[in-house]
Every structure is written in C-alpha cells, then in structure tokens.
Amino acid sequence: MVVLSRNEAEALSSLLGDPSAFLSKTTGAMLLGSFIGTVLYGALLHQAYRYMRLYPTDGAFMKTLVPTVVVLETFRTVCDIHYCYHDLVTKYAQILDIVLYIPWSANLLSVCAVLVGIATHLFFILRIWKLKSHLRFLAVLATAFHVIELTLGIVMSVRGFQLGGPAYFSKKWLIALCFGAGTLADLSITGALLAVMYNGHSTHERQSSIWDSVSVYFINTGLLVLILDLVVFILVLSTDNNLYWSAVHAVTTKIYATTLMSVLNCRKLGSNDGLKIHSGAAVRSIAHARRLATVQRWNVPEEPETMPERITINVQTEREGDDADTDFAKLESGMTVDDKRFIGECPNPRA
Fold first, then answer.
1. First-to-last C-alpha distance (Å) of the chain
2. How many Å apart are CA 20 and CA 182, to the nearest integer?
3. Ranges for the DUF6534 domain (predicted)?
4. What is the pLDDT of residues 30-70, one digit of tens each?
C-alpha cells in the first residue's frame, strides 16, 4: 500500500475530489467498455469461423490477416479484463494504489489498439489501391497517418510504464495527436470508398433496400468506425481526469475487426466457368475476367465504366435474287447510337 505525506495527500485529494466519483469515471468507465467489447469479441469469433468455412480458397494474405486480427483482439480483450480485475478486485478500496500505479495491461492498451487498427485498415488501404483511380493518394495518406499513430501509441505505452497512472492524465496533447492521426486515416479511407460507391450508385441507378444501404454505406466503408473515432477524439480534448475516451475506444477497437469481417463475409465470389472467349477479343476478355475476380475477392466498389459517346453499327446481309443465274444482292443498313439514344437507320439496298 502506498503511504503519502499529509501535503501529498491533500494535493491528491484536491486533484481527484471524491474517490468514488473518480473510480466511476476511470475504472467504472473501462468496466462498461470491456463488457460491450467482450460481447463484440464473441461476434468477431463467430465471423472469423464463418470466414474460414466460406472462403477456403482465399490467398495467403487474407488467410494470414484474419488470424492476426483475431489474435490481436484476443490480447486486447485480455488486457481489458485484467485491468478491470486489478483495480476492482486486487486493489479493492486502495484508491492511492489505483491512481498512482496501473498494471501492465493498461499500459499496453494503446499500442494494442493501434496495431488492431493498422491490421484491419491494411485491407482497406489495399482495397482502395485496387481501384486504380485518382483516389490512390488517399491510400498513401492513410498509410502515413497510421505510421504517425503507431509511433505515438508506442510513446504512450512507454510513458505508462515509466510514470504509472499520471501518464494517462497528463500530456493530453500526446493522446489527442495519437487518436487524431487515427481519425484522419479513417477519414481518408472512408472518403475514398464513399466517393466510389456514390458515383457507381449514381451511374447504375440500382434500387436497394434500407438494410443494404446501411450495410454498404455505413458499415463496409468504415463510416461507423470514423464516427466512433471522432467521439474518442472529442472526449480526449473536452474532458479531464477520466477514461471515458479509453472506454469508447475499447468498443471502437472491436468495431475495427467486425467491420473487416463484415466486408470479407459479404463477398460473392462468382465462377468464370461459363466465360466464352472469342477470337479478336481474347486479351480484353481475359483482362476483364481477372479484373472481375479482383473486384470480387477484395470486395472493391465498382467504378463507373466510361462508354464511348457515339457508337456506329453497320450490318451487311446478302440475299439470293429471283433468278438463279443472277448475283447475290447486298443489303446494307446503318445505325448510330449517341449518348444511349437512337439516331437513325438508313437501309441502302444494292444489287
């Protein structure tokens, strides 16, 4: 048990106020976040099992990425549970020990959460890169922001081991920069995917149900993760002497992984067994088949295809004349399509 002098005790009391209120804003908030995060962790395990059963032919990258995310989320869940057990059971009613010293699990929460975010966003960054469009620079920006976030997350963990509890109640700018970089990475990824999906929807004008729209625009693009990260960032800047931001981030970390699994498990991998390749279009047909396979495997939003403004179609037919000795008569007709509108047809029979 920690023993403080009278002056130190008075200073600590003036800083913390009511001990029970302080615990409710720190360990109590983390306990609620851990409850919700553990439920989402169970959903993640179910999604991972479903992925292994439905997509056994995926490449080595995805077969490595999914177990990696599950392992990181498992370790994060263990850290959440150990932190709450340490404060509420091991150090029960020892407010000074709880404030001045935090367990190893709490010090690893930040870097573990950053690693989970990077692992899941790696798929989305490559997903944007597969678009082959002008939005690739957003993938580069997201990568740069994640490098900054990882660096700051490591610094936060090191400070936690060095300073103990006060590390999470001082240097708020460091915590804000870490989560701010992660939020900017989310913004880059979500913005790129939303832009492509909106353009594709406007072009194809397909009718979809409300649930399909929510799944596509709100979950699969990472918009839900972006909103939660914004909430965490605002809580870091606007509140003091609490761990509300860490509790919300415990839930956000699980949403990272469940979003990834949602995108992977909603894919429809088609078969190209019925693909027919004719002479003269073999190269283009093979390229289109490979492009289609990439789109399906990575669940890449389809960009609107550019169509030629004018298409001219000429048809030439031959018919036999009335007299068997006469030559075949030729009939030519032409049709022009401009911007999906029929312009005209002009038959021109020739003997």
1. 110
2. 32
3. 183-268
4. 999 999 999 999 999 999 999 999 888 888 898 999 999 99
| Beta carbons within 8 Å of 2's beta carbon, 6+ residues apart | 94, 96, 97, 100, 101
For residues 170 and 139, the model is more confident at 139
Structure tokens at 104: 């190893």
For 24-60, b/e burial (b = at least 16 CB within 10 A) is ebbbbbbbbbbeebeebbeebeebbeebeeebeebee
The pair of three-digit structure tokens given for residue 27, joined into one six-digit string: 């360990």
Q: Cα separation of 220 and 265, whole Å? A: 11
Tokens for 186, please give them: 């989310």
- At 254 the three-state DSSP class reads helix
CB count within 10 Å of CB 196 equals 21
6-265 in CATH: which number? 1.20.1070
pTM: 0.72
| Calpha distance 307→274 (Å, rounded) | 25
DSSP 277: -
Residue 259 near residue 222 (C-beta atoms within 8 A): yes
pLDDT in tens, 167-203: 666 678 888 999 999 999 999 988 888 887 776 554 4
The pLDDT tens digits of the residues spanning 281-301 come to 444 444 444 554 454 555 555
Distance CA 231, CA 218 (A): 16
What is the per-residue pLDDT for 25? 85
Gap between the Cα atoms of 81 and 228, Å rounded = 21
Domain boundaries, the chain: 6-265, 310-350
Q: Any residues with CB less than 8 A from the CB of 56 and at least 6 apart, and which?
A: none
**Distance of alpha carbon 185 from alpha carbon 211, whole angstroms:** 26
Distance of CA 330 to the CA centre of its chain: 60
What residues form DSSP beta bridges with 341?
338
Q: What is the pLDDT of residue 76?
A: 95
Specify the amino acid at residue 145: F
